[in-house]
Design goal:
Its EC number is 2.7.4.6. The model has no long low-confidence stretch (mean pLDDT 97). This protein has 7 helices and 4 strands. The protein has 141 residues and is of the alpha+beta class. The protein binds adenosine-3',5'-cyclic-monophosphate (CMP). The site of adenosine-3',5'-cyclic-monophosphate (CMP) has 8 residues, from loops. The site of adenosine-3',5'-cyclic-monophosphate has 8 residues, from loops.
Length: 141
């Protein structure tokens, strides 16, 4: 089915000047960018976005990292977009990320793993609404 998923290019990948390289991988895989914005998240925003991880041992480090610099946030649309994006990103822990994936090529650590992607269609809807409350571009094709 045609799905939408939320993707974040994290501060370490933005600092590496890898926005274009990463967006290019999504497009090359047939995913369309139907919304995008660049922002420097506040501590409150990052804590709310990752609210499900509150209390976990890595939470404070994650929020500190995600607020350390600008991120690029986009909505990707296409056939099986949630799973396709996760395939392109590779495993969350870059130590387990397959060669050629975004995390294998651009991650620096488990926390600084270059990209975030929604893990399911229902969480994608919540995450898309978090960053794009006004909605995304209507389909014109
Ligand atoms: P992300 O897809 O952004 O979702 C939550 C993030 O928390 C995850 O990628 C990792 O960057 C980070 N994370 C999850 N588990 C751990 C862990 N055990 N140690 C460090 N960071 C983690």
């Amino acid at each position: 089915a045609i799905e939408q998923t939320l993707s974040i290019i994290k501060p370490n990948a933005v600092a590496k000047n890898a926005i274009g390289a990463i967006l290019g991988r999504f497009e090359a895989a047939g995913l369309r960018i139907v919304a995008a914005r660049m922002l420097h998240m506040s501590k409150e925003q990052a804590s709310a976005f990752y609210g499900i991880h509150q209390g976990k041992p890595f939470f404070d480090e994650l929020v500190a990292f995600m607020t350390s610099g600008p991120v690029m946030v986009q909505v990707l649309e296409g056939e099986d977009a949630v799973a396709k994006n996760r395939d392109i990103m590779g495993a969350t822990n870059p130590a387990n990320a397959a060669p050629g994936t975004i995390r294998a090529d651009f991650a620096d650590s488990f926390t600084e793993n270059a990209a975030h992607g929604s893990d399911a269609a229902d969480t994608a809807a919540v995450e898309i609404a978090f960053f794009f409350p006004e909605g995304v571009c209507p389909r014109t094709r």
